[in-house]
Amino acid sequence: MLNYIKNYLEAGDLDKPKLVFFLDEAHLLFKDAPRAFLDQIEQVIRLIRSKGVGIFFCTQMAQDVPVNVLGQLGNRIQHVLRAFTPQDADALKQTVKTYPRSDYYQIDQILTTLGIGQALVTVLNEKGIPTEVAATHLLPPTSIMGPMTQADYENQVRQSDVYLKYKDPIDPESAYEMLTKRMEEHAKAEVSAKEEVQQAKNQKEEKGMISEALSSPLAKQIGREVVRGVFGMLFGKRTTSTRKKSGGLFGF
């Protein structure tokens, strides 16, 4: 997700980030991580500032975060550190060295005596310089530890800057759909062509049957009789055929 943001978002140097990620238990993120993954994280951290996005790695010790990543993190919020073992004391010394020098606090002492809700804080000022270390009381987040109601959720969604852009779903035509459409059109064209060929074949067969019937001796004889009868009516000629039937003569 961070890599996607790095590649496709561009916001410039904002006073406040539009989006902030809090990666809790960061030591699990970096534990036994491959080198390629660490390089990718470092690259994202270097470029994410211009995207209007902030990232916080939440862990107990600064040593849990790789040096190359830790060096890109300007804002520090450190809660109490306890030094119960020699290893804890060494970790405390290393952590103290990462803070700006203070004329008001003995950082190694203040870090071990902070109470609940207290933290040692240093951030970057407008010029990008780390500010003086300050021991502060942190306000609890103004949030609800529980599921958000549907009304509050819809209100937050409508207030989003991207709501108008993404509120209407768009289903663009996929490559599969375009290929399927072309195949259907091709199949219809083949069926139409076969029907035209069959129709032409049927017409040809009908013409052949009519031509054969007209060229038969019976058809020729009927034609001659019809023509003879027509000319007879036109010119007053008639062909007589006498048949003795019931003592009369009948002409045709």
List keywords for this structure.
disordered C terminus; 9% strand; 252 residues; three-stranded antiparallel sheet; single chain; mainly alpha; 10 helices; rod-shaped
Structure write-up:
With 252 residues, this protein is mainly alpha-helical. It has helices spanning 2-8, 26-30, 35-47, 67-70, 86-97, 107-113, 150-158, 163-166, 175-214, 217-235; strands at 19-23, 53-57, 76-78, 118-122, 134-137. A three-stranded antiparallel β-sheet has the order 3-4-5, with no helix packed on it. The N and C termini lie far apart (105 Å). Mean pLDDT is 77; it is low at 238-252.
Number of strands: 5
Strand order of the largest sheet: 3-4-5
Helix content: 40-55%
Count of helices?
10
Radius of gyration: 48 Å
Helix vs. strand class: mainly alpha
What is the residue-mean pLDDT, rounded to a whole number?
Answer: 77
- Termini separation: 105 Å
Q: What is this entry, summarized?
A:
With 252 residues, the protein is mainly alpha-helical. The chain has helices spanning 2-8, 26-30, 35-47, 67-70, 86-97, 107-113, 150-158, 163-166, 175-214, 217-235, and strands at residues 19-23, 53-57, 76-78, 118-122, 134-137. The longest helix is centred in the last third of the chain and has 40 residues, at 175-214.
